[in-house]
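Example 3.2
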Amino acid sequence: MRRADRLFQLVQLLRLRRAATGRELADVLGVSLRTLYRDIRDLEASGVPIRGEAGVGYRLDRGYELPPLTFSEAELEGLVLGARMVSTWADPELAEAVRSAMIKVEAVLPEGLRRVVLETALFAPDFPRTQKMSRDVDVMRRAIGEHRLLAFAYTRADGEHTERSVRPLALHFWGNKWTLAAWCELRRDYRSFRPDRMEGVEILDQRFDPTDGIDLAHFLARVEAPD
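Structure, written as tokens:
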């Protein structure tokens, strides 16, 4: 871990804890007590309000906030890769939103970190199949947020064709496909559906109650393969 990243993590640890001993902090960071003490001295010298209390440990003054958009290189690489995956695999609205967000991030980064955003060699290549796999994901996202039923025609892997009305609960991305977690009104049970096997996806006027016991937690407890 780079020292700058370690100092950042140390401040985060102190923000999340009311107090922590030097040994506790050193163990979490994987450094010696001597290194931990030196890091704390350096942070104090730079203006971070760390207080040490005998028998209690170190604490950070309440209300202290880190400067905005303080990222490590690894964090930025993760953000860039995530943004590129969304741009490739998500619906156009979400892809445009994440591109806009990354432009805002890039605009306020110092030059050294801006280079990481521009030069990160982590990609999520696009190809014709991705558009089919993420078809109508924007409609499903809206139905989930508004707690409204979805209707569509569905073709299973074995060729069976049915008309479905479902409660959409969540969307899951599996690296090469999306699935919609839902309660199926036809089967009266939880099911997963693949967007590339749906046709005529439509949001219905009918709303459902997300607190009536048919929810994502129960779906996850009874996960099944896509119907």
